[in-house]
Design goal:
By secondary structure, this protein is an alpha/beta fold. The protein is built from 10 helices and 8 strands. The two termini are about 35 Å apart.
């Protein structure tokens, strides 16, 4: 697959603070298109999406914020991801992680039409496994994986999901901040969760390798959802949800290199970049470098930078 489709998703309605709407511009300023073209890809930048008109919605949970807006984004992102996945490899430039409710909807539809299972590698400090009933913060970037796997509580609010993800096809890595309700739900969900202790004990390569073998054996399509807070905040400060103890520079690049070697990745989300909190574009550049590793830049080809 030699065509990459860039979809700007300036979503910040699901986050707890402002700034994620500047993420797509920061990725472009860090020259994500140029990095991909250097690797031989054709890059089609579709510009920034705009949400569908926010429907009139309410919910019994008074904590929930910006529900109509997030549902509006979910609708437009579902269609955009579905359409782009027919042209090449969609790369959604976020935007907060609520956007994954839409991208996973569209990609699961595409996978179902192809007769192949969709697998998801969720690289994040958080599982985002709350339902509309269990979220206490009310920030809806904490619900997309619960929605995408068909958990109850979204009916009549979010778009009906015709092809929910099989939770057994989801692997979460880098997890280190889980609310009690999420912990309870995950325990019986079938989702594979590798927290940072598991990564420390077993090594990131062994854990990821086992998941990639599962995807390959099932002839699956693989979606990668990369949240900035998967990374340690010492190397990636440009995020509003920092949790100490994240993936190191080398661990993150190793994940990307293994993903490229597998040849399995069919779509990618880049989420939660908040340029307002970044240091002179440092996090945006790192994320673009990680994308380059995922798409084939070798260790020996990595440029030297002076700052």
């Amino acid at each position: 697959m030699k065509t990459c489709i860039l979809l700007g998703a300036p979503v910040q309605d699901g986050a707890g603070r402002l700034g994620c709407d500047m993420g797509p511009s920061a990725f472009r300023a860090a020259d994500i298109a140029g990095a991909l073209r250097e690797l031989g890809y054709t890059v089609l930048d579709r510009g920034n999406l705009t949400p569908a008109e926010a429907p009139a919605l309410d919910h019994a949970n008074p904590a929930i914020k910006r529900l109509p807006e997030v549902v509006g984004w979910t609708q437009v992102l579902a269609e955009a991801a579905y359409e782009a996945s027919a042209e090449g490899l969609p790369i959604t430039l976020g935007g907060d992680h609520s956007l994954a409710a839409g991208t996973l909807f569209g990609l699961s539809r595409r996978a179902a039409e192809a007769g192949r299972p969709l697998f998801v590698l969720w690289l994040d400090a958080h599982p985002d496994f709350h339902t509309l009933d269990t979220t206490q913060s009310g920030n809806l970037h904490g619900v997309p994986m619960a929605y995408a796997t068909g958990r109850a509580g979204f009916e009549g609010v979010f778009p009906p999901l015709p092809h929910p993800l099989d939770p057994r096809h989801v692997c979460m890595m880098g997890i280190r901040s889980v609310d009690p309700a999420e912990r309870t739900a995950l325990a019986t969900s079938g989702v594979t969760v590798h927290d940072m202790r598991a990564i420390d004990e077993h090594g990131i390569a062994a854990l990821l390798g086992a998941f990639l073998r599962q995807v390959e054996a099932a002839d699956g399509l693989l979606h990668v959802s990369l949240d900035v807070d998967f990374l340690d905040p010492d190397i990636a400060p440009g995020v509003g949800t920092t949790v100490p103890g994240g993936a190191t520079f080398r661990e993150a690049h190793l994940v990307m290199e293994m993903l490229h070697d597998s040849g399995l990745v069919s779509s990618l989300d880049l989420v939660e970049l908040n340029p307002f909190l970044d240091e002179r574009g440092r996090t945006a550049r790192l994320m673009v470098d990680l994308v380059a590793s995922l798409m084939g830049r070798r260790v020996l080809d990595r440029p030297t930078r002076s700052h």
